[in-house]
Amino acid sequence: MTVTGTEHLDGIESGFEHLRTEVRAFLSHESATGGFVPDTDSWMTGFDPGFSARVAGRGWLGMTIPTEYGGHGRSPLERFVVSEEMLAHGAPVAAHWIADRQMAPSILANGSEEQKRRYLPGIASGRSFFAIGMSEPDAGSDLAAVRTRAVDNGDSWTITGTKVWTTGAHLAHAMVVLARTDGQPGDRHSGLSQFVVDLPHPDIEIRPLRSIDGQAHFNEVVFHGAQVPAAALLGKRGNGWAQVMGELAFERSGPERYLSTMPLLRAWAAHLAATGATPGQRQTLGTLTARAWALRRMSLRVAAELTAGRKPDVLAAMVKDVGSTFEGDLVEAVRASSALVARRGGADSLARMLAHSVLHTPVFTLRGGTNEILRGIVARGLGVR
Ligand SMILES: Cc1cc2nc3c(=O)[nH]c(=O)nc-3n(C[C@H](O)[C@H](O)[C@H](O)COP(=O)(O)OP(=O)(O)OC[C@H]3O[C@@H](n4cnc5c(N)ncnc54)[C@H](O)[C@@H]3O)c2cc1C
């Protein structure tokens, strides 16, 4: 399907109903046979390599990677359909999420032929998981301030520095690291480069950081003068800033930026259908559903723009800002509108899901770029000074 950007969104979607039906049947079977227990924020916390392998077996990983690199040569819109269903059903997609979402397109765009052949088939077959090495203790929103340094030894690089909030680094097979190769932190956007670093590595220490629920999904990663081969450089030396901006476009633009808590809404709706809803609960459900639908249309437009080969940065920033706010509002609305008491243990799966969602709400508007930063991008994109 060719997307020009002028079509009606319904027309764009109608071509993929068969795929959607297939994914739904797969997920129903998986959840009915104990393949997974639906949960919120499953794209960050639901790490299940077995599930990832089964998804890969259906051809739903590396969908947009060309077949010559082990992928399936399909469109971002088809990938959107699969992602949306996985997220709405709370499937455990965390193991492959980062690799499939942003590392595959980044390696495709910037990688050497050797890197493409080395990493892309593993991503498409659900065997190669990645971590994102951007943030540092003094460089989160202000990524240009990274201090991690890579020194050129001719046939290798020596990397020294500390990354933080590195999701899944303890389980990943590789990490893409943003480091300064030239100049000083004051040089800002120039002198930065990216590296694909295989993990584990004897001189890279990965220390768990525990979140409020006691789980350790992210890490502090310390590079103690870690040597990596010259071939680990991703793209051009000094072009790291532009490459990272391209990678962030993929990181920020997907439906996970408004669907993290959708499994809670679905579970609550099923609960109300079974037990009966008050007029107030109906109103809350209707309001949340209307907001989700509007967000879905915006998110679908982002996928359509990507399919057309355009860069919908401003729209993606807008969807992430409004969407991640919605994710938290949804949790609070369900909590306030029901007699449910959030409990981390016990037999009530809805109460457990609510507890998990409440504890995760603070991260929604931070990860992948805070809402304040996104609003800056939107304002600049709209020409507001
Ligand atoms: C769950 C989770 C997972 C993450 N996973 C990863 C990962 O895998 N890899 C990775 O590299 N990073 C990861 N991060 C880090 C994330 O990208 C950063 O937390 C985020 O970019 C903010 O950076 P910071 O924490 O340094 O906050 P800061 O930049 O210190 O910001 C603090 C506050 O100041 C505000 N602020 C900062 N600058 C401005 C400005 N110019 N204008 C207005 N307000 C501003 C921010 O909005 C924020 O509210 C993760 C974060 C979370 C919460």
UniProtKB/TrEMBL annotation:
Where is the Acyl-CoA oxidase/dehydrogenase middle domain positioned along the sequence? 131-223
> Which Pfam families does the record associate with it?
Acyl-CoA_dh_1, Acyl-CoA_dh_M, Acyl-CoA_dh_N
All copies of the Acyl-CoA dehydrogenase/oxidase C-terminal domain together span 238-382
Keyword Flavoprotein present in the record's keywords: the answer is yes
Which keywords describe this protein according to UniProt? FAD, Flavoprotein, Oxidoreductase
Superkingdom of the organism of origin: Bacteria
Q: What is the lineage of its organism?
A: Bacteria, Bacillati, Actinomycetota, Actinomycetes, Mycobacteriales
Residues in domain Acyl-CoA dehydrogenase/oxidase N-terminal? 17-126
Q: What is this protein called?
A: Acyl-CoA dehydrogenase
Q: Which cofactor does it need?
A: FAD
- Organism equals Rhodococcus rhodochrous J3
The family this protein is said to belong to: Belongs to the acyl-CoA dehydrogenase family.
